[in-house]
Structure formats: C-alpha cells, structure tokens
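P.,

For your records, the input lines for the assembly:
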Amino acid sequence: MTERITPGMSRFAEVDDQYAPHELEQRVFEYWDEVDAYEKTVEHRSDGDPLFFVDGPPYTSGSAHMGTTWNKTLKDVYLRFFRMQGYDVTDRPGYDMHGLPIETRVEEELGFENKKDIEEFGEENFIEACKEYAEEQLEGLQADFQDFGVWMDWSDPYKTVRPEYMEAAWWGFSKAAERGLVEKGHRSISQCPRCETAIANNEVEYEDVEDPSIYVKFDLEDREGSIVIWTTTPWTIPANTFVAVDEEGDYVGVRAEKEDEEELLYIAEAKHEEVLREGRYEDYEIVEELTGEELIGWSYEHPLAEEVPDHVDAAGTLEVYAGDYVDTHGDGTGLVHSAPGHGEEDFERGQELGFPIFCPVGGDGVYTEEAGKYEGQFVKDADDEIISDLDENGALLASGTVHHSYGHCWRCDTGIVQIVTDQWFITITDIKDELLENIEDSEWSPDWARDNRFRDFVEEAPDWNVSRQRYWGIPLPVWTPEDRDDDGAATAGSPERAGGRADEDMIVIGDREELAERVDQDVDPEEVDLHKDTVDELTITEDGTTYTRVPDVFDVWLDSSVASWGTLNYPEDDSRFDELWPADFILEAHDQTRGWFWSQLGMGSAALGEIPYEEVLMHGHALMPDGRAMSKSKDILIDPHEAIDRHGRDVMRMFLLSNNPQGEDMRFDWDGMQTMENHLRTLWNVFRFPLPYMRLDDFDPQETTLEDVDSDLELVDEWVLARLQSTKAEMTEHFEDRRQDKAVDALIDFVVEDVSRFYVQAVRERMWEEEDSASKEAAYATIYRVLRETVALLAPYAPFISEEIYGTLTGDAEHDTVHMCDWPAIEEYWQDEQLEEDVAFLRAIEEAGANARQQAGRKLRWPVPRVVVAADDERVAAAVERHTALLEDRLNAREIELVSADDRWEELQYSAEADMSELGPAFGDRAGQVMNALNEARIDEPSLEALEEAVSDVLEEGAEQRSAEDASGDEPRAALEESMVSFVTETPDDVAGTAFGLDGDDRGVAYVDASLTEDIESEGYAREVIRRVQEMRKDLDLDVEERIALDLEIEDDRVADLVSDREDLIREEVRADELRAVDDGHRKEWEVEGVAMEIAIEPLAAAEASD
RNA sequence: GGGCCGGUAGCUCAAUUAGGUUGAGCGCCACUCUGAUAAGGUGGAGGUUCUCGGUUCAAAUCCGAGCCGGCCCA
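Structure tokens returned:
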C-alpha cells in the first residue's frame, strides 16, 4: 500500500507553509471519500435523540446561485451543530422537479409555441423530456451542493417526480377531501393564454407596460345622459354586466360642451375635472350633486350591444350597483365597469348579486362564439377594433394609453388574462381559525416573521387553487362521472357560492394500492409511474357509473407542501412517521412565507390537522454588493463558483455564515471574503507555529494532558483556557438563539485576538527554549487543547480546514473525522472570570503603554526603566498587582509602579468628563452648557470642590435664573455630585502617558518613563544588532537551528562597548557559536540610531564544508 | 396601492429592548515593527445616524409624514 499524506494519518506531520485552501479542500474531499467520513458520522449518532429536519426542495431549473448556496450552507452549519450535540439527524435532501418553469424550458428547447405542439409531440414524450431535463438539472445542483461541503444524504434525495412521493401528495389531498376541503369551483383566475393554464396569484409577475386607457360612456335608459367608466382592458367590455359605484361617494352630473354639442355625464365629483379634460370638453357646468347611493338602480345600454348580440341581458344586469372595491378618488371615474366573467372582485360581486357569469374568452385568450363580431381574435389584439367600435357607437369619451404594472406569467412572460374557469380548490378558508391556531405551535426566528408577516398572510389567504391545465405535474387523483358537465355552467347564476361543496360523485384516490384496486384496468402498484400519461386512460366503474380522471395536474406548490411526510416516503413506508413527524426544524428564505411555509401549513392542517413543522429559521436573500437583488435573467449575480475559485469553500462558507440569518438580506462583499481568508490564514499560522517544536520534542497529547501539567501552567495558559471556556459558552448560547453569525464572530475574535495576537506572542520564548522544561510541556498541552477544541467549534463552519487541522493534531488517536466530535463542553475547572478580566485590563494597559512609548519615541525593543500605572479603581489595581511580571514583560519595562486610586501623582492635572444621564435631570436645559464648562476646566486635584470652583460662573448663572423663575424658591439649587463627573488625568510634558479603559470607560493611565541609562542603551543596541542578524539569517534562508559565525564592526566606540557588554545575549539569540572575522559570508552595512555598523555572518556548516 | 423588514464612517454592521457627548471590524493614509505570520503595532482622515416635522432639558433611539432598497400581496 502506498503511503499517502492525509489528515488523520500522521500526527504533527509537515503542513503547508501557507494556507492554500484549494489544495487543502481537494485533500479533504479525497480523505472523506477514503474513510467514509459522512457515513461514519451519521452512524456515530444513530443512537442519539432523533432530530427531524426537512429540506425545502430547491427547484430543478438552473444551477445554484448565491441564495441557494447561502441556504444550503446555513442548513449545513445547523445540521452539523445538531449532530455534534448528539442528535440523530434526518438530513434527506429534496428536489422540486415538476411544474410550469420546467415545461416552458423544455418547450423552448424543443422550439414549441403552444399546447398544440405538445399534443403533436405526444404527452408521454413531453413528460419524458421534462423528466430528463429535471434530472439533468438535479445532477448539477447536487454536484454544487456537495462541492460546497454540505453534508446531507446525497445518496438518496427525495424527488417529487418519484411515484412514492407523488403518492404522498395523493394521500394528503385525499385526506383533505375526506375532511370535505376539496371542491371544484367556478372562479375568476389568472390565466396564461400561452401556457393555457391557470396560474396562482403568486406566480403572476408585475411588469410596467403600456396599455390602452379609455373612458367610455354608457348611455342611461329611462333618463337623459351617460355614466362614464374607465378601463385599461377594452377587451373586457363585451362581458360588461354591471357598473359599480361607491355608495357613500360623491358624484356629479355635468353638462359638458364640445364642438357645439352638449352632453350630460355622471362622474365622481373628485374626478370630474380630470375626466372632462381627458375628453377635451370646452366648457362644463355641474348641474347635479348626488351620492353613489342615488345612482344605484340606474340602468344603461350595453355599449357593444350590436357587436356582441349574446351579451348579458338577464334581469337586474346592466344596472348600477354598490361595490366596495370602488374608490371615487383613485384611478378612473369613480364608476367601475364590472365583468364577473373576468375580474376577481367583479366575479365575487356578481356572485353576490346572482348574475350569470359571461366569459366569451377561451383558455387560450381567444374570443369564443359568444363574443359575436370578435370571435376568433386574441383578446389583446381586439382592443383597437373594440375602441373604434365604441367610437362609432358614440360611446368613446377619450382614448389614450397608460404606463402601469400589469400581471405576466412568471415563466413565459405573457400578459395574463383574467377569466372564469372551473378549477379545483382546497378550501382552506373553511379552516382558517384552525390554521391560525396551528401557527402557535411553531417557533419562528425571528419572531416577527410569524407574528406579523405570516399571520397577516394566513388571515388574508384565499382558497388554494391546486389545479393546472398542464402536463408535467402530479395528476389530480380525482375521477368524476364521464357524462358530467365539466364546464360548471350549471352553477353559474346560482346566488350561492360557486361550485358548492365537494361533489358527492367524486372519487379521490389516496395511494397506488387503492388505484390498482379500483380502476377497471390492470395496474401493478409497484410499477405504476403515476404521471399523467399513465393515469389519463384509467377509468373506474362503480354502481354502473363510469368515472374518468379529471385531466388536470397539481399546482407545483402542492408537491413540496407534503414534504414533511414525503421525506419519509409516507404513506408507502410508515416505519418512521409516528416517531419523527412533524419536522423539528426547517430553514428557508423569507420569500417562502407565502410559499413553502404557507403551503405546508395549509396541507398539513388540511390533511392531518397540525402544522407540519415546529421550528422555523427564516433567512433573507443574497443581494449584490451594491444592494440590488440578484437576477439570473438580467445577469446580475455573484456566482458561487467564482467565490470558490477566488477564496475557497471554507472562506465562502465563513463569509456567508457570518451574516445574520434572521430575516435580513445579505449583501455579498468581496472585501468581506478577503477578511475571512485572512482570519483562516491566521488560524493556519497559529496551528502551524507549535508543530515543529512538538515534533522535535516528541510531544504526545495523550501522554501529557492538560490535567497532567496543571501545576506547571503559567498565567497565560490559564488565561487562554479560561477564554476558551467563555468562547464555548458564548458560541453555544448564540447557536441556540439561531445566531450562528454571532457565534462565529466570537470564535474568530478568540482565535485572532486572544490566541494569535496574545497567547502565541506570550509563549514564543517558552517554545524556543532548547532544553526540556515543565513550562514548555505546559504550553504544548495548553495550545494543543486550545487548537483541538477550536477546530471542533469551527468544524460546522469551515469543515475542510477544520478536518485537516484536526487530523494533523490527533493522528489516529481520535475519530476519523472532526465532524464526529461532540460539541465542546464548558469545563468549569478552567473557567476564571477574574483572570479574564485581569488580562483584559493588562492588555488595555499594554496598548496604552505602546501608545505612550511611541509618543516618547522609544521602541518596544528598548527597555524602559519604569512604567507607572495610575489605576482609577481597586479592580484595576488588583489586576496590576496580581500580574506585575507579565506586564513588565509585555511592556519591556524594568519596573512597574502602581499608583492606586487613593494616591496620585503631584505633577498631574485633571479635567472632568460629564455624565449626561446624571447632569441632564439635574440641570435641565442648561445641562449642555454645564457639560462644556466641565470639559474645559483644568484643575490640580480631582476633587469636586476644585471643579465647582472652576466652573462656578456657569453654576451661579444657572442658580440665578432658577430663583428668578421659581419665586417660591424652596427648590434646592442644583449642585455638582460625584456621580455626574469622572476625572481624567492630563499628562505632563516630560512623561508620555496614555489613558486605558475597558468597554469605552476610562480606568486609568499608563505613564512611560522613557529615560535612558547605560544598561538600557546596552540592551537596546544589543537587541538592534540581534534583529539585524536575524534578518540576515532570513536572507540566507537558514534553518532556525543552524549555527553561524558572526563578525561585528561598530564605528562608535561607546556603542561598541555597550554592545559588547551584551555579547552573550547576542550569541545566544542568533545562534552564533563563533565571534570572529568573516571573509566570505553575507555582509551588510547598517545604520542604527545614527550609528554605522557592519555585520557579516557565515553559516558554520558551510564554512566547515569549504575548509 | 397595502403589509413586513431595513436605511448609522468608503464597505459590513453594532448601539434602538429601557432616550443621556455615535462605536467596532474591514478598507484607506502616515509612521513603525518583523525568525510563526501575504502578519503585528501606533496614529490619522472619514458621520446631515435617509429627509422633514413633532414630543423632550436631551432623539440614531419615541411619534407623524415622506424618500430609497428588499420581500410579500394587489
């Protein structure tokens, strides 16, 4: 067997100098394959508590975009987290593969124009072509998801086109039918005339278009004059049935003159000027003022009575009625042309009024015979002819065009027509109260998504039209008597609700077994495919009646609505349903409020009386860097593949996951990607740093645990371990709040700020020591524990780099994959809040000291004799007292002097900062003035008396005002209180001092005494020499252990003497075994603090070899 | 047109719960440091907190009216 370098095989193996994400990720993919990492991780949790996650199935047209990528990455991070917490997670992915979008894509590919082409091609062939297309798209999507490092059960996704899944939809629908929630309805729907099918309201996309805008006069019968209506759809005029007005609106009768003719017109008062201007009338006079109520009952003549001989003429039609959809201040005239055969509101009002439904338009948008003169024309094409006919009839008041938004088919972009047809509905409005109650059984993040958005939607949701007159979908499992009058005309004109209850004479089949049992033909339930072409011909004969299948297929939203049991292959497989259902967790974007969140609620409630999910995490959309929505069709997008090419999978995931997942949109940001890469590089470097030392010393983390070296731990070790505990606690809390972004921020902060910038800095010298020491072992054990737990915490986010680091750290001593690890538990033993706070103060002091040093012009390399820490309070003083040595070390100070809060430096001056929350209530409208005075004051001691003295002018002025206003004078004069101010030190010129603080509050000042002594100069110059020799070693690319000969020439005698005092130090630090003249070596001239030096080095191995 | 969410530094966001002198990271500029670091450190520039009005001693925060973006609905 050939030896391979893979994570998990060789502890502390050599790793890349640089973090190289692409190579690393390839290695990890291969490794996962090799050890069956995913399968082992699933198996590892098989005894855990079940956690039933249901994947909202992506639609299989097109490839993964940044939004899908974010969605799947979020799912991945939570599923990995749940697994690490011990849950046995159901993680079956799914794909939504039916529906009009795929049909239109396939039609495009095949060059089809309309349904006739499909019929000619053959339903069976077309369905097969759709299936192939969907499967192809699925492959691409799934390859992408796997490439993003998402771990789900890719071997067995649920597909909505599989018979067992389609059966799950049949089952759900049949349960709803059993509850009496299925009915056939005669309703106004949006129809795509190209696709020749109803489409759901949420499939209608609104686009700005130019349409006719006409004002039409309807001549009144039995009285003089006309009422005026406005419409942008002249093609609906043939179906006019009544005119609606606002009962309480104000209307006027106007005598208007044009070209010597006079007309009496009735219009809303608010609109009359505009309408008359449109009609180019020269003069007018208001002759009547009426309310809408007074117009009711007026009858008029149909304006196209001759052209459309079959027009509505039933009793009560062609009259004025009240309609609550009329607005006398909106568009139009305040009188609304109403055609129940078209508009939804018109339809509903027409039903109430018991009018016949006249719709002279077919499913293809072409006028039928009933349209008389216009028969055979596509409705939009007939607009011009209708307008000119109206004109000829003297009915046209004005004709123009208007830009407005008009509904279009979401897939083929054809303008929709509103017509009345027979459709099948799930009447969820009958169980609306139940739906609203069921919502309460689910927890949502963020909570407003449920309590505002979702509830609003559910409250207003209409019945669900589930039928589509198409091919690529789950066939309706409904059989009706073959001689049945399917166009539903019988119900038209009925004053009751259209369609009525579910037909007594309707058979709804619930599964394949039942299908095989009841149909007249031979059907093998194991083999039957269930698509339209296989079930269309099946008939059922019972009690002498033959039933044929309703030819429609389901709205594709119904497919995914049954995912909670479809995922479990229920009802075919009932082995897990009772244990798992309903889903514990679902996670989708906010557009699913009206989509999947809703359809599942409706279907779950209709079929099973319950909401099918218990917890929802609702995220936002991925936006472009400039905040625009991404759009594939407009080529406005960031391709996840490009993101991976530029930065790698882990980086992309880290970026995506560092965004708030609760309802807020995410702006993609290349800078943010780069920052994440920098963070991961930092982690890589932290990880890489101790490896050579551990290797050299044969450190064995199983032999030498943290517990073994407990007594040798130094302060920084204990501190970083305490920080680790806090980080774990913080992350766990954020994860449980479904804010993985805050969790990863905490982790990054820990790695970058605490481990890399502080801990590693602090332990470098300990690891650099050549001989074994207890301290070094303690540092090894500490950083090992820190890294080992860090990669577990990071694993759900960045599974690749975590895997490689884990493998390199643990060898074969632990799990095969980091993803089998438990979520790191908080260990109370290592918690130490006081120490964390102490170090926070020390770091603040260090930062201030660095600032002060820079002010004093003294580099960190040069020691300073003394740093004075003036602590504002006991807490700070205690921290400094406890850790003086560490502070000396970090500040490179010979001595730390603590000035406690009770004492102070006489040289110092003070000023005061006001606390406005105290000052405001006490001084009222003068608080700002007092604040300014306080800020400007300079005093010698930080006492309230001194301060009051300094700002006395302002205080007294206020007191005078107050007593002048308040004659009773018993209110006490506002005075300064301790709580209103905090004192701030002012630095003397000769000492550099900088304030330090925590969380924005000043807590003291660090003063750096930068005076020089010979001893300090000696060390300073020596360290300057060391630094330059190190640089020269680096020039030669010498190994860290390599010995050299050093040649040092310094012109200034005084400096030369100072440096030679530290000869031992220099030799040790630069690994110089010999101090002598070097002839051939690497030679360089330097200037150090104005002193010229010449340094030469020569590797000893090379020197020996050349001898 | 309606509902929900958002608008704070060049960018990403925090501070809005409960009103009290607007902050961080990234980016930029200058200086500095460098034998784990494509790093690190110090300083700096950068703000009409979308606009207008109101409440208040005091508003990014509360209220009202708009504007812009996103989602959903019509």
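Two observations worth noting. Residues 1-8, 486-503, 967-973 of chain A have pLDDT under 50 and may be disordered. The CA atoms of residues 401 and 695 of chain A lie 82 Å apart.

Regards
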